[in-house]
Amino acid sequence: MPKSNPASIAAVDLGSNSFHLIVAHPLDGHIKVVDRLREVIRLAAGFDAQNNLTDEACESALRCLDRFGQRIRHLPAGMVRAVGTNALRKARNAANFLPRAEAALGHSIDIVSGYEEARLIYLGVSHGLHDGADLRLVIDIGGGSTEVIIGRRFEPQLMESLHIGCVSMSVGLFRDGIIDARRMRDAEILARQELEPIEEAISRAGWQTAIGASGTMESVAAVLAQNGWSKDGITRDGLQRLRAAMIAVGHIDKLGELGVPAERRPVFPGGVSIAIGVFEELGIERLRVSDSALREGLLYDLMGRIEHEDVRERTVENLMQRFAVDRSQVARVRVTAASLLEHVAGDWALNTEEDKRLLQWAATLHEIGNTVSHSQYHKHGAYLLRNLDMPGFARGNQDRLAVLVRAHRRKMPMPEFGSGPQAENLLRLALLLRLAVVLHRARGAATPADVSLTVEARALKLSFPKSWLDAHPLTSADLAQEADYMKAAGYKLKFK
Question: How do the residues of the chain divide into helix, strand and coil, expressed in percent and rounded to 5?
């Protein structure tokens, strides 16, 4: 990393069972962990009947994040990555909870898709292993979801996120604490049903080494080792012996007799049943457990962003290829959009690196909807960007990118911008993108290099070289039409 960067970077994982904080120093392309904090929150158990997080669950989470914030609030924003996973993906009131959570932590929080969670888990696991060339099957049983990934070295090749986790399974089938053969069998069948649609793809991809990650796998491996049922990781035979022992003790309160820590007991039956289902459905005999997972993956992903090896750039490039984007047009719009942003960044407080990147990505992808149909292609593009799997992008960034693409032409979709300061910034980025697109509507290099833009509050003024607009009446007409669109959005456009 450049010497100008701070020595510490940090990752925060708002998991469905536990919240984790990890602080590290980058060192020769690797990380040296200097601090770890973990608190059991069980967010996945804190839902009401409408899938809203309860007040109690929210307050418990906020108290934890406030404590985490005391450790990392002083770090620059670009040196911290915080993400929410399945429980926050599921929560209908996540939009209300997030601002309070970000205020407590002192940093922004991204909600990531299951696909992105799987990518980050695989990145963390791969960096924690020797760089072997074997094809790896990685299983991470979380509180609300289970991620299944196949990859080689640092490149995932197949990623799936299943809607089962140790908390949700335990709440659903072991809420009263009773463990018996029927409930274990029912839980295992539920796990296998979730795996059934992807079993063929996993088998077809093939794998040589099975690796488990995160709390459930670590706790199961520890209990097996303590009882002498497996000496190296987790085995199918060891799981069956553990299953029999759990049924014999009969209740989560007695799992301490098997060496299960107190904080893990309420979610242990659900986690074990999912592990058994995974072994049975995917034909696993032995699995070794990794010390690294999502948190470490976040740190390595953050290091890539800092060192300008941002996976999001590769994602955008892949989408350009996939949707046959007109690269010449994209180049023209990108250059003009960047130039316009440079003129107004200070006046409009669009100074962050993320502002610049978001505008450039939107300029790059604004025409991908043409693959579906030229008619309403801005709407098709927005739909694609909201629903595609986009490695490196959090859900919020995908949504903002989709709004920019949706808003780059025709009537401004004002409700989609939301409200608040971030909404105003997004609207202003949309205005800049619209101008760049209008100026290149002829899909040629006719726009002069010395066009300038000034702004004052909610007024924009475009200035062209003398007589240029007279020589380009179509551009003048397009700008007049654009002025009407902007007026409806509460902005005034002048040009001369």
Answer: 55, 15, 30
User: What pLDDT does 1 receive?
Assistant: 43
Same domain for 273 and 145:
yes
Q: Is 372 exposed, middle or buried (0-12, 13-18, 19+ CB in 10 A)?
A: middle
Kindly report the CATH number assigned to the domain that includes residue 375: 1.10.3210.10
CB 15 within 8 Å of CB 43: yes
Region 128-147: mean pLDDT is 90
Of the candidates 173, 213, 200, 205, which has an alpha carbon nearest to the alpha carbon of residue 189?
Answer: 173
pLDDT at 6 over 60: no
- The pLDDT, as a whole number, for residue 2 is 43
In 3D, which of 82, 88, 214, 79 has the Cα closest to residue 140?
Answer: 214
Nearest to 101, CA basis, from 46, 145, 50, 60? 60
Residue 453, in any domain of the structure = no
Average pLDDT, the chain: 94
pTM confidence score: 0.91
Task: Let me know if 488 is exposed, middle or buried by CB neighbors in 10 A (0-12, 13-18, 19+).
Answer: exposed
Instruction: Please report whether residue 170 resides in a domain.
Output: yes
Please write down the HEC assignment for all residues of 93-107: CHHHHHHHHHHHHCC
Residue 40 CA to residue 38 CA, distance in Å, equals 7
Q: CA 386, CA 394: separation in Å to the nearest integer?
A: 11
For 342-394, how does the pLDDT look when each residue is reduced to its tens digit (9 = 90+)?
Answer: 999 999 999 999 999 999 999 999 999 999 999 999 999 999 999 999 999 99
The pair of structure tokens assigned to 97 is: 């909870």
CB 234 within 8 A of CB 161: no
What is the phi/psi pair of residue 77, to 5°? -55, -40
**Structure confidence by residue, pLDDT tens digits, 77-98:** 899 999 999 999 999 999 999 9
**Residue 51 — φ and ψ, nearest 5°?**
65, 30
Is residue 491 a part of any domain in this protein? no
Residue ending a domain, among 259, 277, 303, is: 303
Distances (CA, A) of 144 to 14, 45, 84, 88, 137: 11, 9, 11, 10, 20
